[in-house]
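Quick illustration for those who missed Monday's session on complexes.
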Amino acid sequence: KWKGEGTTQNLESISIGRCYDYIRVVNPAVGEKNCSELWEAFINAFINKDPCNILPQDFELFFKLSLHPIPADKSLFWENNQLLVNSFSDRARRYMTLGDTLFGFFGDFLNWCGKENSTGLDYESCPTAAECENNAVDAFWRMASMTYAQHSSGVVHVLLNGSAEGGAYPVRGFFADYEIPYLQRDKISQIVIWVVDDIEGPNIDSCGYNTVQILEDRLKALGYDVTCTDNYEPVMFLLCLDNPDHSKCTLSSFPVLCSHRSLPSG
Ligand code: NMN
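Prediction with beta-nicotinamide ribose monophosphate bound:
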């Protein structure tokens, strides 16, 4: 019926299992959460409803129940580099992306939708964003992004892909539309932008150019202290793990490492 993929098989087991994994193993600091209650709040947002008429507010109870503090200075926003960001954040050990919060972890990489006049899930197909904007998956991630942005504090980070077609900062997207407007100015001391190109990719965007300039100007106009760094070395190290022989990955490409060679020995 719809053009998109259907609900992920075993969704209930996966989500409830992820919830326990998160509160028991990944991040026990969030304290006790009722994972079956979370599941109920989650599906009640969209079952037995028109799958094209689900709004972010329908997930309000789910987000209220799953909310936990996001440590200051640990927020990491991103566009066009989900897998890189996942390894960089290291499941909340280094940074806490939306996917590393309990609510993001619960739904990450899964798909879901209901059916009108039925309490079942639709495993055959789900509406794509093109078919209808107000589908259950997009409504969930809109609320997730707004909640995550509202609870971010201190130094917040953004990792963008300088090789992305159409620019590192999509001027329409989750970050632009559902995160930036919900950041709390008085809780945020600085916004750090990192623009990292793919190892083999073109250098389309950089700090001070094209869409990155648009982003810097937008954030400054909102009153934020903004810094921007191209090809931030710690992220380059990660990319170089998979491309050790590339010229961008030789020791001499990393001035920080090379500077030690000029120190007097002994
Ligand atoms: O999915 P895109 O449009 O690239 O959005 C990325 C941004 O929006 C990130 O800043 C992230 O916080 C948020 N987001 C994350 C997920 C996810 O973790 N699966 C999904 C949708 C939006």
